[in-house]
Design brief:
Helices cover 43% and strands 15% of the residues. With 387 residues, the protein is α/β, with parallel strands linked by helices. An eight-stranded parallel β-barrel has the order 1-2-3-4-7-8-9-11, surrounded by eight helices.
Amino acid sequence: MRFFSFHLMPYPALPQDYDGPAWVTCPNAFFDPAVGTQVYNRYIDELVAAEDLGFDGVCVNEHHQNAYGIMPSPNLIASILARLTSRVRIAVVGNALPLYDPPTRVAEEFAMIDNISGGRLIAGFVVGGGPEYYSFSINPAHARERFQEAHDVIMKAWTEDGPSEFIGRHYRLRFVNTWPKPVQKPHPEVWIPGAGSLETMEFVARHHYAYMGIPYFHIDVFDRQFRLFREACEKEGYTYDPAQAGWLTPIYVAETDEQARREFEEHWWYFVKRLLPGIDIQPPGYTTLRSIENIMKGRGTFALNLDTWEQTVEGQYAIVGSPETVYEQLEANLTRLGTGNLLGLFQLGTLPADATRRNLELFAREVMPRLRQRFPEGQPMLARSAA
């Protein structure tokens, strides 16, 4: 079992009277650079602190033109973390490959981070969310093809000596000859997040990469997604390794269940009601019909539809409570999902710095050691009924 602290870097100061989407058309006049200066540095400190607390890694991700996560360049943050830490893995989950032209830029920047960190990069590749295709004015029907071609360019740059040539439908590169190349051979560990796309699961299984489940769905949806991923691995002729799967979920720990809810709930609702609206935009052609059918099975349970705390608890949208409660819920869900990587969102919405720090410390001291003992690395995780 490996533990990662994942940071979205949310914007915590949307005007109280604004009730529009947080994505694509959320006016950037709302962005206050004074707030940005404060929270960027605070969020970086929270990621750095994870190393001293014993986490195995930290995670950052990429989104554009939104208040949900003000991290359009996770590679900038990852390069800072590479210099300020010495042990933790640094997972960029990930770069939205279809948005890069040429994609050798990703190969170069990821290789720089891997060199600066001494070989601690986890390279994440994503197709990118639906809103990104509006923000970049890229034809969403080309998303999958561009993703796969960009992936092939990056792997060619990392695993073959150049100069060489790449001729595809979307990328035509006369000289592929990137400097530097990664420390890790043949290439850094690769993670690919998904929200139910069957093509993504099949791609991950085919390449023996790791699949990360994107949060904010009912726990039953994750159960189905990871079962489908295990089946995709079986179709490729092998049994999945728990290290190939990761579950991302909000986590908040306090001394008691009552205290945890009291300290966390208002920040949860800021996140759900102010920062999630607009994240579910699906431009025409972005997703195939077969994947739309699969995604729609869980769409009604997306967190945007939540109205009460009781619904949040019932669906396990966030793991909140005393150390004992959080351990019990995580243990049960990890046994059910069989994921060898736990990616915790320990800061969410407007959760302040002092509460975030206490949350990280309590989890690291009271919960993480028990889960490590319960799920030794390299051992099977699934309950017998789910295997």
